[in-house]
């Protein structure tokens, strides 16, 4: 297993992206759940670096998120 070291700049860039994405969802009034590593940390306290943002929504609301 190869582990990549994430730089502080990469962490800041990712955090900015995640905040912008969630802000856009909130401002649009869309319902969603955050999953993956962020949910794991929130509910268990276990932290791991991640390179994605897992967002779940109802299938009927999916087209709204694409516009």
Automatic annotation (TrEMBL):
What is the top-level taxon of the source organism? Bacteria
Can you name this protein? Nucleotidyltransferase
């Amino acid at each position: 297993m190869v582990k990549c070291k994430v730089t502080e700049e990469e962490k800041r860039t990712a955090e900015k992206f995640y905040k912008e994405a969630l802000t856009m969802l909130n401002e649009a009034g869309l319902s969603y759940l955050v999953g993956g590593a962020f949910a794991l940390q929130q509910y268990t306290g276990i932290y791991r670096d991640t390179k994605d943002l897992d967002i779940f929504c109802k299938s009927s609301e999916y087209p709204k998120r694409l516009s």
